[in-house]
Amino acid sequence: MITPVIQINNISKSYKTLSVLDGLSANIKAGQIIGLVGRNGAGKTTLIESIMGLREIEGGEIKIWGDILGELTQDQKEQIGFVPQDSIGFEWMKVGHYLEYFGGFFAGFDKDYSQELTKRWKLDNKSRIAELSGGQKQILQVIQALSIKPKLLILDEPVAHLDPNMRRQFLAELVELTCELGTTVIFSTHIISDLERIASHIALLNHGKISHFYELEALKESAASLLFETEVPDHNQFKNLINWQTINQGSKAVLASPNGMSVSEIQQQLGINIQAQPLSLEDWYLEVTNEINS
To answer: On the chain, which terminus has fewer CB atoms closer than 10 Å, C or N?
Structure first.
């Protein structure tokens, strides 16, 4: 059996009386690109910082490459790239100095690659970090993380301050990196359209747990809005249908999970005609978060 890159076992984290992570468990396999989504305050940053060892969890354990988080070797640590949500500081440094300085902490840092990205994304090595825009500061952190050629890359809202063109360049670079190195990626984002371009899996964090974790293509093939020609008396028999509504003489529901009965199987069991309208990933997200928080 192949050991997952990240094993998260029943972890918990609270801030005073607020439980943010509540017995959360998940396994991330090598080469997966996980899009981590959830409402503001759902705990995405807390989860990411817990995986990075920046937050002390109160229960459970986190393993990376089969080793307890606090027992990773220096070589293992140097194979993890991280882009935090907040700006980088080091305002007095120049771009080139920043990359050279932080690159020195990683044996795999590729200076030529970092300079290639710097030119491609139009950053001036002689500019001080204090002179950069929010988007430029964010892309500088991305360049530093990509340039170590990591085996594990963790990104917390990495494109929040980037314009659409730069976002697309970043996503293309990320695809190229994962194809070249088989890098495992976790990135949180509110921009659902970005997930469709790059993610292999989607993980929805809610009430301290991963409530939905699916292969993205399987989810896109199955997610749909269903219209039943007559009322369905027992909604509970279909666990993967949510947000039931009565529409005229019929019913409406959302097929929210690729796990369970297909539309044709539901129709065969009920003997009721069903019209299915595929859902975009963004519509699926809105439907699922509405169901969870209703």
So the answer is: N
In angstroms, the CA 111 to CA 131 distance is 23
Range with lowest mean pLDDT among 37-51, 150-164, 203-217: 150-164
User: Which tokens go with 76?
Assistant: 């293992």
Q: From residue 137, how far is each of 4, 18, 52, 89, 131 by CA, in Å? A: 32, 32, 21, 9, 9
* Model pTM above 0.85: yes
Residue 166 carries which side chain, given as an amino acid letter? M
Strands 6-15 and 274-278: unpaired
